[in-house]
Amino acid sequence: MGRIYLDNAATTPVFNQILQSLYTWGKEYFGNPSSIHSDGQKSRLLLEECRREIASVLNCDEEEIIFTSCATESNNTIIKGLAEKYPEKDEIIVSPIEHKSVLNPVKYLARKGYKVRFLPVDKNGTVDLEMLEKWISPKILLVSVIHGNNETGVLQDIDKVSKICREKECIFFSDTVQSFLKEDIPEIDFLSVSGHKIHAPKGIGFLKRNKNIEIEPLIHGGGQEFGLRSGTENIIYIKALKEAIRIWIENKDRYISHLKELKRYFVELIHKELPGEEVVSENVKTLPHIVSVIFSNIDAQTMIMALNSRGISVSSGSACSSGTPTPSHVLLAYGYSSEEALRAVRFSFSIFNTKEEIKKTVETIKNIKKDFNLFFF
Ligand code: PLP
Q1: CA of 99 to the centre of ligand 1 (A)
Q2: Cα dist from 286 to 38, 55, 96, 130, 330, whole Å
Q3: Domain range summary for the chain, segments of one domain joined by +
Q4: How far, in Å, from the CA of 275 to the mean position of ligand 1?
Q5: Are 4-12+252-376 and 16-250 equal in CATH topology?
Q6: How far is ligand 1, taken at its centre, from the CA of residue 332, in Å?
Q7: Active-site amino acid positions
Q8: What's the 150 CA to ligand 1 centre distance in angstroms?
Q9: What is the DSSP string of 211-249?
Q10: Is the CB of 7 within 6 Å of ligand 1?
Q11: Ligand 1 and 70: CB distance under 6 A
């Protein structure tokens, strides 16, 4: 068995058939979609075909799909673009368990004087929607609630959030990066998707907007993407993204049941082989491919490095850019202590993982814990 890759919430391997086609697409569709000659128009036709197919997946109009370079760009475009367009609205309601690419643009607006209200979250990771109903008002610029959390997999009831927002004529945005294709997504005003989380290359994503709500573009220039994202479209990667979505949808039932089975098996083995370890948010609705475990007596960085040296790639929600890990803001919001949050390791699966890999991973964790306990306790 080669290396085992269980960090698919961070990024996924590109589908082979896409990798193999990139050269051909690059040769064929090199024209600039804005050029009026045949080479350009050939790319334009492909661009619009991709937009149409993606729009049909989300049941929205073609002009509501705006291609971007990644979800971070989509999230920034939506949040800052709305703020610029509606300066009279100066309050934002957001969950504290958003990805940093949502939280940091919101914090940027807070520094500019916006009032930010963070929705409470319970120990299972569920956002308090009663508080949302209490706080929502005409002064609210935007409500932002992530669909499936990238660290714990916990799903929020965004259908309900959407209804609450619609009733009060408030704009709703959800980061659907981890849930797109894996869960049903109700009709919402704005959402974001990233290609590299769904077996397309890095450097491509899109946002879905409500075409009746204007936003100011983040990038000004030649007016591509309905004036909302200037810059020559990355046509080959847009094609790759569309193909990744097509492949997934064609195999959806098989892929989803495989992911569910991998996760079920992993959790079952953790409980059987390592009783006492805490599986985060086990009793609420979660994504089929993400699970976090809080290990006793061993910090996440040590576990991740030990697994890495034994050929297994996993990660955690704690950031370690300064050399001293900071605990995950998501687990802190759930009510875990810093010390507990620093022991949380995330395992995230893809359709390419196997049950044998899961078995090997749990055996390896068991051995690491045995060695660690012998050495330190
Ligand atoms: N939102 C969520 C929930 C994510 O998991 C990620 C990536 O980790 C992002 C946004 C950012 O995606 P991208 O790498 O495309 O900017």
Answers
A1: 7
A2: 48, 26, 18, 21, 15
A3: 4-12+252-376, 16-250
A4: 32
A5: no
A6: 20
A7: 320
A8: 8
A9: TTS----SS-SS-TTTTTS-S---HHHHHHHHHHHHHHH
A10: no
A11: yes
Residue 315 DSSP class:
B
Q: Which CATH number fits domain 4-12+252-376: 3.90.1150.10, 3.40.50.300, 2.60.260.20, 2.40.50.140?
A: 3.90.1150.10
Q: Is 101 in the pocket of ligand 1 (CB under 6 A)?
A: yes
Beta pairing, strands 312-313 & 4-5: parallel
Give which of 266, 228, 284, 273 is closest to 345, Cα–Cα.
266
In order along its 377 residues, the chain shows pLDDT tens digits of 899 999 999 999 999 999 999 999 999 999 999 999 999 999 999 999 999 999 999 999 999 999 999 999 999 999 999 999 999 999 999 999 999 999 999 999 999 999 999 999 999 999 999 999 999 999 999 999 999 999 999 999 999 999 999 999 999 999 999 999 999 999 999 999 999 999 999 999 999 999 999 999 999 999 999 999 999 999 999 999 999 999 999 999 999 999 999 999 999 999 999 999 999 999 999 999 999 999 999 999 999 999 999 999 999 976 665 567 899 999 999 999 999 999 999 999 999 999 999 999 999 999 999 988 777 66
Quick check: CB of 193 below 6 Å from ligand 1?
A: no
CATH class in words for 16-250: alpha beta
The answer to whether 3 and 313 have CB atoms below 8 angstroms apart is: yes
d(CA 316, CA 22): 32
For a mutational test of ligand 1's pocket, the pick from 197, 207, 287, i.e. the residue with the most ligand atoms closer than 8 A to its C-beta, is: 197
